[in-house]
Amino acid sequence: MRKTKRYQVNQTNSLWQIYNTVSFWKVAKNFIVIQLGRYTPFLGMKNWLYRTFLDMKVGQYTAFALMVMPDIMFPEKIIIGHNSVIGYNTTILAHEYLIKEYRIGEVIIGDDVLIGANTTILPGVTIGDGAIVSAGTLVNKDVPSGAFVGGNPMKLIYTEEEMAERDERDTDIN
């Protein structure tokens, strides 16, 4: 189960009440910073923008590919470890607005994680150290350290132990 905090709403759907949950000015500032980050080709500059203006926790040598979309409303809920790669056009959500409620949850991505292109990461998930997420995956639950996952809905393809055995076999063949 994803680790999110739920907030009930009584009137219209929760998205119509967005500025009761987050400041318009915060969203406007975040939008500008994220758009700059999405298009800049300078990895160090992206990390600096995200750390400085969005309060994201971004580890050293983490690389955001072109067009990555961090959460625009709650980017401070995103924590990414060292030396990870976030693939092209990936979306990292820390919120979800539904009809009768909205949910907010931290997204924690460990060290040495590879996230494939066009992946969507939902709020409240943890991706363990050394994990690999295949391109186009909907990450809707936690990913164990060292695992290889993929698909929509996400499925475990290899555990850390199976990945190690596979690497050993490949080394022996070569």
Task: Describe, in plain words, how this protein is organized in 3D.
Helix 2 packs antiparallel against helix 3. By secondary structure, the protein is of the alpha/beta class. A 6-stranded mixed sheet has the order 3-6-11-14-16-17. It has a 4-stranded parallel sheet with strand order 2-5-10-13, covered by helices on one side. The chain is built from 4 helices and 17 strands.
Q: Which helices and strands occur, and which strands form pairs?
A:
Layout: E1 5-8, H1 18-21, H2 24-39, H3 43-54, E2 57-58, E3 63-64, E4 69-70, E5 78-80, E6 85-86, E7 91-92, E8 95-97, E9 101-104, E10 107-109, E11 114-115, E12 120-121, E13 126-127, E14 132-133, E15 138-139, E16 148-150, E17 155-158, H4 160-173
Parallel strand pairs: 2-5, 3-6, 4-7, 5-10, 6-11, 7-12, 10-13, 11-14, 12-15, 14-16
Antiparallel strand pairs: 1-9, 8-9, 16-17
Helix pairs in contact: 2-3
